[in-house]
């Protein structure tokens, strides 16, 4: 399955997806990486791995719809069957999300539906949570909503700062996203009545 990865920044999840998809027998390959930011360090991660990159700079487009149309065109030109958003910091229009329905994944650094949005780790600590984690889900129009493919729980430890917690969650993200992509790309994870059903296999 041909995958396009959307990024805006560092690209550490992209790096883990590249490594996983290059394992023998992995059911997906990353054929394009698109960033809305021209200086995203993740672009260099892709280039170093020999993966084609493209910048679709949101600042070059007068409206969200115009930006989304170019993003959509770039993905279709590349023959993409599944989008993985990995630290992509733009809200996509309803039309875009709908046309990629059940064909777009996102990773979020909390146990959704708790702590949608930004400043996740600060808010987890403020709330006094003892456990947090990360989630890979299919994308829907509402931010950080959609059928959940996979989650990992991560402990909050005494004395954690938001950065310490972010690092611990990020390590879990790097394991989770490849696993979730494998489930979806192999056809084992499917959306049925807005929930993900996982079928067959043992691993
Ligand atoms: C990750 O924590 C991801 O969950 C969030 O943004 C961060 C992106 O990090 N949406 P990276 O660019 O993959 O390193």
UniProtKB/TrEMBL annotation:
Enzyme Commission number(s): 2.1.2.2
Known catalytic reactions: N(1)-(5-phospho-beta-D-ribosyl)glycinamide + (6R)-10-formyltetrahydrofolate = N(2)-formyl-N(1)-(5-phospho-beta-D-ribosyl)glycinamide + (6S)-5,6,7,8-tetrahydrofolate + H(+)
Pfam family name, one: Formyl_trans_N
GO biological process, one term: 'de novo' IMP biosynthetic process
Site (Raises pKa of active site His): 144
Enzyme class (EC, first level): transferase
UniProt binding sites for (6R)-10-formyltetrahydrofolate: 64, 89-92, 106
Entry GO MF terms: phosphoribosylglycinamide formyltransferase activity
UniProt cross-references to PROSITE patterns, sorted A to Z: GART (PS00373)
Pathway in which this enzyme or protein is active: Purine metabolism; IMP biosynthesis via de novo pathway; N(2)-formyl-N(1)-(5-phospho-D-ribosyl)glycinamide from N(1)-(5-phospho-D-ribosyl)glycinamide (10-formyl THF route): step 1/1
Formyl transferase N-terminal domain span: 1-181
Cellular component aspect of the GO annotation: cytosol
InterPro entries linked: Formyl_transf_N, Formyl_transf_N_sf, GART, GART_AS
Residues that hold N(1)-(5-phospho-beta-D-ribosyl)glycinamide according to the record: 11-13
Keywords assigned by UniProt, alphabetized: Purine biosynthesis, Transferase
Catalytic center residues: 108
Biological role stated in the UniProt entry: Catalyzes the transfer of a formyl group from 10-formyltetrahydrofolate to 5-phospho-ribosyl-glycinamide (GAR), producing 5-phospho-ribosyl-N-formylglycinamide (FGAR) and tetrahydrofolate.
Family membership noted in the UniProt record: Belongs to the GART family.
Name the record gives this protein: Phosphoribosylglycinamide formyltransferase
Organism: Parvibaculum sedimenti
